Amino acid sequence: MIAAGYKSGFFSIIGCPNVGKSTLLNTLVGQKIAIVTDRAQTTRNRITGVLTGKDYQMIFLDTPGMTRPKNKLGEYMQKVAENASNDTEAVLLLIDATQGVRERDREIMERLKTVRSPILAVINKSDAASALAMQTIRETLEQSGLFAQILSISAKTGERVDELLSVLKGYLTEGPQYFPEDMVTDQPERVICAEMIREKTLQLLREEIPHGIGVGIDKMEMRPEGGLMDVWATLYCERESHKGIIIGRGGKMLKRIGTEARKDIEWLLGVRVNLQLWIKVKEDWRNRQQMLNELGYKDA
Ligand SMILES: Nc1nc2c(ncn2[C@@H]2O[C@H](COP(=O)(O)OP(=O)(O)OP(=O)(O)O)[C@@H](O)[C@H]2O)c(=O)[nH]1
Ligand SMILES: [Mg+2]
Questions:
Q1: Using a 6 Å CB cutoff, which residues line ligand 1?
Q2: Domain 7-174 in CATH 3.40.50.620
Q3: Which of 127, 129, 203, 290 has its CA 20 to 30 A from that of 283?
Q4: What global pTM score does this model have?
Q5: What's residue 1's pLDDT?
Q6: What are the residue ranges spanned by the domains of the chain?
Q7: In 3-state terms, what secondary structure has residue 247?
Q8: What is the pLDDT of residue 137?
Q9: Of 16, 19, 23, 105, which is best to mutate to test ligand 1, by the most ligand atoms within 8 angstroms of its C-beta?
Q10: Cα–Cα–Cα angle for 84, 189, 154, nearest 5°?
């Protein structure tokens, strides 16, 4: 049933890798539900964020950065990003103000010409770019004629995010409350836990290794006496040599990944956690459909 005057709507957040899509999602819903790193291709799946107001609900879809796929996982990620722009109230195309309008941004803009929903350009990272750079980007975007509106924000500091929200409110239509009002994401806790572990590998390991890591939660179990949760997780990597690097000298790296991830997971779950990490080598898993399915990269 739709209550009279209640409004709701979906908004997709798309753009190149590393432009701040997941940071924006977290800022919009006021909670860290998507992992963020300074590495490109951090997000691999669609992440739903929910913002519920007194008489409205906004649902945001964070997506993997759009780039040319190099393997099956990459193809999946692109499909997720492309499908998310269908049937939303508006599409938010994020542009990184510190990078300007790049070739890849133009390619995405070209593809968006066939999308029926209004498209908003959101120039992000205003805190890190000069006024002149912002103005140049704005003019370039205006010339394309593609955008219903062009806004400038800093997803990190929150600057002008309120203004973005009031613009988005204008795109809501009368509709149902899709999610319970206390729900900020539809991701199960175990998925967020796996992501938190993956975030640490992206932050702590160098170059390409973390891009070849997948994390699966094997089991989460509360101790009968309460107050402590055991979490068993497996890190899948592509090569024996990578396994050695992830473990590190004397097990130091794996310990660090575990300690940092544990703190985040404890904060998320609100209980003390005993985190056990295992590493398995699955050669070329990013091209193996069964492994992709097992790690939740399916049904784009
Ligand atoms: N200075 C500044 N940095 C930002 C801002 N928004 C995001 N960042 C940084 O940009 C980097 C990438 O942020 P993410 O939110 O992970 O970017 P993303 O677009 O989700 O990246 P992918 O998931 O890889 O596509 C991180 O280091 C963020 O801290 C911003 O408004 N200002
Ligand atoms: Mg992301």
A1: 17-23, 36-38, 40-43, 64-65, 124-125, 127-128, 154-156
A2: no
A3: 203
A4: 0.96
A5: 63
A6: 7-174, 189-294
A7: helix
A8: 98
A9: 23
A10: 50
